[in-house]
Structure to design on (858 residues):
């Protein structure tokens, strides 16, 4: 069964993938035979029987900090200040580049296992994130020009220079599964002269910016106090930060004027439901975003503030929360939520068409086992994906036309090694 | 690894089960050998190696309508009126007793697969629920004296008489895994003279009542309009409904005076997070319940309003929602949520000690596979259970001392048959 880009299903069809792109979706036996004959001699040619499965687009996680998986469950149920400054940052300062690599690998395994094929990462060092992504087989949007620890001198938490950042961009932007953005962590962590420099760099290299935006009320009021009552979103608009492609994570507290700015510049919003709830940041105005026609996408945030990277849980929350909050069960339809987690996410992170089972789209797809008793009877495919499906139902993961996971087993990742490395990391404060 | 009743873990211990009760938790090799020698000749004697697993109490689902699994995903994202009267009830009227049996069996399979060992059911006909429960191996609290379809005459939706109900109680209350309550559906569905009759019956038979209470604002205002401004909770107190053991499902809209009444009579509250959100009923004041010292438990409600029966999702929601709503990440600790889903639930439904790995407690336990990449590193066991664990991590289910599921396979349920029966039910309006 195929989940089509019309949010419905088709049966009895074959999806033909050539290189990294969906070439055709057809039930024409002659076309299928001709395709097989043309390609069967290729070394990586394979056929997968999808009977009993749902073929759907891979999920897209538009905001995470993948290496934070090593900090899973640290400091849960504490205040934001106690959690961040008392538990997380003191441990992060002791991370080695190797820890970051294995943390990101573990995160990417968790994401793929639960159906995510593409993610948007923000962490350091950049080279460890890119290395992990090239090794794992995932597709990612990774940003450079952030904080970094100077591992060679032991100096903690310095900034990459624009030159370093530009060099990394040029070095990595041609890789097949990587899309490189510039990092603008936030208005509270970066100095203002830096923010403009990042915008210039993004324009110069014709790429985008990944930022945290209005995650907490404090971040907004602190900024306004220092900047004559100007809100961070207004300020960022004034320096041209939204003139390039932007992924704005959180957007938990946005007034009508902020929302108009986001819409005016086609800013992509990455809503992080679990993280915003868990850290007590608040509840993002998702129905207002949709009403304004903003491209709304879903992210998990890092593992230390979630404490998992399971996009099915984010879909579940996005579909449920506002119905109860506004006492209106018609708010946020299942189909809209599936779109947020697939095609809208891909639009935010990539320049090529992706996120739907459609001719000409990148071949990032998952096969979901429909035999679980919790998935029967189906009755409504969008409700099934949104309310019933579990990450553990994902059987096969195809990214960029390559089969990465089959029968729940990774074909070229040493699972045991990653697990053992991640569990051996002991992070003291 | 054993999750102890102190909400911590112990390693290297053995749990010895005699009959249906946990006899001992020990690392004394002599005690273990003596126990094995004493029991090894018994036909159902078995040893399970728990290495790499977490042994924890089975989850307790304190409110559901198990046969509604056949209505999964019907009428999602509609208004409550459209959903209930336009989609659900017209189909329910066409259910046969056989449909109800297979629906309940499928529900019980889904519950056990995701770690639930005991549930509180409300549906009809009573004999189909009890038959399914006796067949499945689960523990259940089932209530009689509800609505019923008179299948013999084709009459739809009549009521059981008190005599019928009392007869069923006497017939089934001595079964090992069944605990029989009386059903008081709600103040809006039952006539007032009936409510008092149900209280009398419960007192006479020294058992409890399972009811819906303050699920929606409309239910409260409608009742108040007809009853001189008296709230349903006040009225039920006045007729003695809380003088017996009570499981009150939903309690979505409770003011301070209602909460005082619940606490005064030790009413057990079954919070149904997903259902209340999904149907737009509202958000129950869970932090206030806990502050008042009320026994708070978790339920999934029926599958048509959830659309699954996965208690891990209910835990996840209960732990997250209030932190975001009140912008306080210290609200509703992971440990409290695990208690709600285990020992507090068991206390609400049963008269015997259950819901903890503790000597003298009923042997209702699950083994959870800890090898998933999403469960590593562990760092904090309560956070792990509450925020990371998935229903699909449950490997083995032990109920009443019997191994019901092992290596994710049911030992004596014909899974294929149940699945096929459930999928063959076509319910027209």
């Amino acid at each position: 069964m195929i989940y089509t880009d019309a949010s419905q299903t088709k049966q009895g069809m074959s999806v033909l993938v050539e290189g990294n792109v969906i070439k055709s979706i057809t039930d024409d036996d002659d076309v299928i035979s001709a395709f097989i004959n043309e390609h069967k001699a290729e070394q990586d040619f394979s056929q997968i029987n999808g009977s009993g499965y749902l073929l759907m687009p891979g999920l897209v996680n538009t905001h995470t900090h993948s290496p934070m998986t090593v900090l899973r469950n640290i400091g849960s149920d504490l205040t934001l200040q106690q959690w961040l400054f008392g538990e997380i940052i003191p441990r992060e300062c002791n991370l080695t580049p190797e820890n970051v690599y294995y943390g990101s690998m573990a995160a990417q395994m968790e994401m793929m296992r639960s159906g995510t094929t593409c993610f948007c990462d923000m962490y350091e060092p950049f080279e460890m994130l890119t290395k992990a992504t090239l090794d794992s087989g995932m597709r990612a949007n990774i940003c450079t020009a952030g904080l970094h620890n100077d591992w060679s001198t032991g100096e903690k938490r310095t900034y990459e220079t624009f030159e370093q950042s530009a060099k990394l961009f040029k070095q990595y932007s041609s890789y097949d599964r990587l899309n490189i953005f510039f990092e603008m962590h936030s208005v509270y962590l970066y100095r203002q002269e830096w923010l403009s420099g990042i915008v210039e760099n993004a324009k110069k290299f014709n790429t985008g910016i990944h930022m945290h935006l209005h995650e907490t009320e404090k971040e907004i009021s602190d900024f306004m106090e220092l900047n004559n009552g100007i809100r961070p979103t207004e300020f960022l608009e004034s320096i041209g930060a939204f003139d390039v492609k932007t992924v704005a994570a959180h957007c938990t507290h946005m007034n009508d004027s902020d929302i108009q700015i986001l819409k005016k510049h086609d800013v992509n919003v990455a809503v992080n439901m679990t993280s915003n709830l868990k850290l007590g940041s608040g509840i993002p105005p998702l129905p207002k975003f949709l009403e304004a026609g903003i491209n709304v996408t879903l992210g998990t945030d890092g593992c230390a503030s979630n404490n998992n990277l399971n996009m099915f849980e984010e879909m579940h929350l996005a579909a449920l929360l506002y119905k109860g909050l506004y006492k209106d069960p018609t708010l946020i339809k299942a189909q809209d939520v599936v779109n947020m987690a697939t095609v809208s996410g891909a639009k935010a992170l990539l320049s090529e068409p992706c996120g739907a089972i459609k001719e000409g789209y990148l071949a990032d797809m998952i096969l979901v086992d429909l035999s679980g008793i919790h998935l029967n009877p189906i009755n409504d495919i969008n409700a099934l994906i949104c309310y019933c499906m579990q990450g553990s139902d994902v059987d096969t993961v195809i990214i960029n036309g390559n089969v990465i996971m089959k029968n729940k087993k990774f074909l070229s990742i040493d699972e045991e090694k990653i697990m053992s490395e991640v569990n051996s990391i002991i992070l003291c404060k």
Observations:
- The mean pLDDT of chain B is 94.
- Chain B touches chain A through 74 residues (CB under 8 Å).
- The domain at 59-349 of chain B is CATH 3.20.20.140 (TIM Barrel).
